[in-house]
Specification:
This protein is an all-alpha fold. The chain contains six helices and two strands. It has two domains: 79 residues, no CATH class; 55 residues, no CATH class. Helices cover 46% and strands 3% of the residues. The chain binds zinc ion.
Length: 157
């Protein structure tokens, strides 16, 4: 009997974005969006309790800190709306969102606006630095990294 391999994420083909460590920060945001959408649909089917919305909103706020007070409004269409396309998710996580201003600093790693860029080698673990340099050739600690990227790289060590 022939075995048929079904991709876990048919809209993505066989490669989940988290399989590419160089896109760790974006993969995390992708997961947060996708999980919010799944839980929203499960809630509407009565398969998840109402607490799921608060849990996903909190997770969302941590993944997209640049949205600040816009967070609930930005979160709602993903949790309350229909299943998003892969393209819509990718567009959302690549576009800087929220009330950013033109002169606001952007993280050189994830390209998202950030209020605080940690700059320089101080506090940067050697293995984390190597991992960032591997994924972003030419990057120097002086260029900075946002707290979220630092967290993601530390988590992937
Ligand atoms: Zn970043």
């Amino acid at each position: 009997m022939a075995k048929v391999a079904l991709p876990l994420y048919p809209q993505l083909g066989t490669q989940h974005p988290a399989a590419r460590p160089q896109h760790a920060a974006r993969a995390l945001k992708y997961r947060v969006l996708w999980d919010a959408s799944i839980d929203g649909r499960l809630c509407r089917e009565g398969l998840l309790g109402t607490r799921a919305r608060a849990v996903r909103l909190l997770e969302w706020a941590r993944a997209f800190p640049m949205l600040r007070e816009e967070t609930p409004a930005a979160f709602a269409p993903w949790f309350d709306g229909p299943r998003p396309t892969h393209a819509a998710i990718v567009a959302f996580i690549q576009e800087p969102l929220g009330p950013g201003t033109a002169d606001e600093a952007r993280c050189p790693l994830c390209r998202l606006p950030t209020c605080v860029l940690e700059r320089g080698p101080a506090g940067l673990d050697r293995d984390v630095r190597r991992a960032i340099e591997r994924d972003h050739p030419g990057w120097r600690p002086e260029q900075g990294r946002c707290a979220r990227c630092a967290e993601v790289y530390e988590a992937f060590q």
